[in-house]
Amino acid sequence: MNSENEIKARYRAYCDACESGHLEKLENFWKVPTIFVVNDGAPGVAKHLIKGYDELVSLYRTMFDASTGVDQTVITKQDVTMYGNNLGIIQTELEHYAGERLDNIQKAIYHCVKENGEWYFVAHLSDIENK
């Protein structure tokens, strides 16, 4: 599998872990410290510097995982840009559903790094349009 497809596969697996509430698996996908910058329609832009996996899980419980009611993630767009062999960016567009109801649309960019043969996310930038 080429690097672009490896990143896309990792991203899908990551979405599956989040929507099923398996936040303990986040450290399989992320390297910390990391930064999350999220525009969710609230005044200002939320910026989170995440120093440990416990902070990452806490952030997910409030914004992204099944505890928010979202139980399905439909990836409508994925584009990967490679920077050499070990760095990449995946740009995504997602529809998050709570049951059959569209909860939000998220456009996001994840910075990726390859370490020891595995791809990890190291930064997140997203815009969330709540429905």
TrEMBL record:
InterPro entries: NTF2-like_dom_sf (IPR032710), SnoaL-like (IPR037401). Transmembrane segments: none annotated. It comes from the Bacteria. Coiled coil: none annotated. Residues 7-125 form the SnoaL-like domain. It holds the Pfam family SnoaL_3. This is SnoaL-like domain-containing protein.
